[in-house]
Amino acid sequence: MTPAHVVEIVTPKKYLLNGLWLGPKRSKRCIVWVHGLGSSMFSKLKIAKQSVDNKTAVLAFNNRGHDKVTYLPHKSHVYRRALRAGAAHERFTDCVDDIQGAVNFARRQGAKEIYVAGHSTGCQKSVFWAHKKGRGVRGLVLLGPVSDYAALRLEYDKKKVARALTYARRALRRGRAKELLPPSVWGWPWIADAQRFMSLYSGRGPEEIFTYWDPKRNPRVLKSVRLPALVLLAGRDEFGDRPAKEIVKWFEVNNRSRDFRAMVIAGARHGFKGYERDVARAIRRFIAR
Q1: Burial class of residue 131 (count of CB atoms within 10 Å of its CB; 0-12, 13-18, 19+)
Q2: Which of 169, 184, 207 is a domain's end point?
Q3: N or C: which end of the chain has fewer CB within 10 A?
Q4: Domain of 143?
C-alpha cells in the first residue's frame, strides 16, 4: 500500500483546496498533479502510485474545477467570500492561484525538485500557470493535451454549438455570467455557465492554448514557456480530431522548451486506463534526465 496523507492547501488568494500527499512526508522531489475538466484528485491515482518512490511524492489535489458544481471555501470561512466552482462555474484563469498554492505547499514540505503534471484540461492549466508564473519547478508533464474546442467540434454539430454560443454571449451582456445554460440549449454532461462555456468553446478563450486545429493561429502562450516538458498523447484518444502523431508534430514545431520530449502511447484512450505503468515509466525517465 502507498502511504497517503490528507492535506489542505491554502492558495495565495486564501482559498482552500483538498488534497492527498502520496509517498514520504519529507521528500526530495514532488509531482504536483493537476486533474482535468470535471475530474478530481482521485482520477489518476494509479499513475501517481507508480510514480512514488523513497525520494518522490505526488501531490494530487482538487483544483477549483473538480466535479460539475461545487463550493470553494475561503480561509476566513465567511460564506460571502466563498465561490461557485466546479467545471460548470470555474474561471479558467484562477488556475494560476490553485497551482501556485499546490507548488507552495510542496515547497513547504521540503521538496527541492518540483514538477507540474496535468491531464486533459489540466494540461492547459499547467501551461497557463507556467506562462504566468513558472518559477521554482523543474518541468511540465502534459498527459493527453487536446483542445476542448476541437473536441467539441468533433462531437456536436455546428448549429447546436452556435445557438449555445449566442445564448452565452447574450447572458454575458446582461450581467448573467454565472447563469447555467438551460438544458434546452446545452445540457448534461457538459453543463456550464455562460462565462465557462465561452471560455471553453468559443475558440478564443484564454484556455485555447493548443490550437493545432488552426494552422494560422500563433500559440503564443505555449511558446512563452521555456521549462523542460514531456508530452504524452493517447494513440486512440476519443477527443482528438486528428491522429495523435499529427498533434505531436504540432507540439514539436511550436514548443520553445529547453528540453522537449513527446511520444504517443499506442492503444491508449484519453483516460490512459490500462496504460498507467507506461505513463509512469515515461515520467520517471523524464525526471531522470
Answers
A1: middle
A2: 207
A3: N
A4: 4-147+215-288
